[in-house]
Amino acid sequence: MNTSYNIIELDDIRCDVIYKDIKNVHLSVHPPQGRVTISAPLRMDLETIRLFSISKLGWIRKQQARFKSQKREAPREYITRESHYYLGRRYLLKVVEQDAAPKVVLKHNTIELYVRKNALMTLRKEVLQGWYRQQLRELILHYIVNLEKKMNVKVAEICIRTMKTKWGTCNPKAKRIWLNTELAKKPIENIEYVLIHEMVHLLERNHNEKFIAYMDKFLPKWQHMREELNRSALGYAEWSC
Question: What is the CATH number of the domain that holds 203?
């Protein structure tokens, strides 16, 4: 895809303009600092883009304020008695050193992390993140079977990875859905919302009235769930218009 770049200054707000081989202009505000990007068609002149961004200035400030007030998890050190979350519930981490392959075991009130003696924090994090990915994948695959029948769509592939700005994304053409590993820490209803949201994109690519109608049909309380998810700690969902 052909791309070029430019910058627009709106008062104290900098907008990074990225020209792409696309049909419509797309503006995004990214957490955690509220960085603004605008994806624009290759032949759209900068003044037109500036006028568009000015019309969205109030919306941009609203989203930036939302990110600044949003709760953030403290940095983790992956040590015993540190708080970690799984499916919306708080657990205490218990690090167990042993001369065997690393693993994670979920107990009633604890997440037991088994690693070799003197394992670095980076390795502890990698093992726990791998466990989160596996748990989320198994959970999602269980839900997809029923949702595919209900929505009359087919998901070709589910990918789980850590994403900085989105809870999920969808490639309608490839029928591929990507989900953020961080979702494993959230309540089931939050995970269900993101999954249905991305699956609806298999029926409607854009966030238009048709998309909203599908969301209302398949998940009547979706707007409440979206707000709840984006108020939670580590709220990486990207806001776009």
Answer: 3.30.2010.10
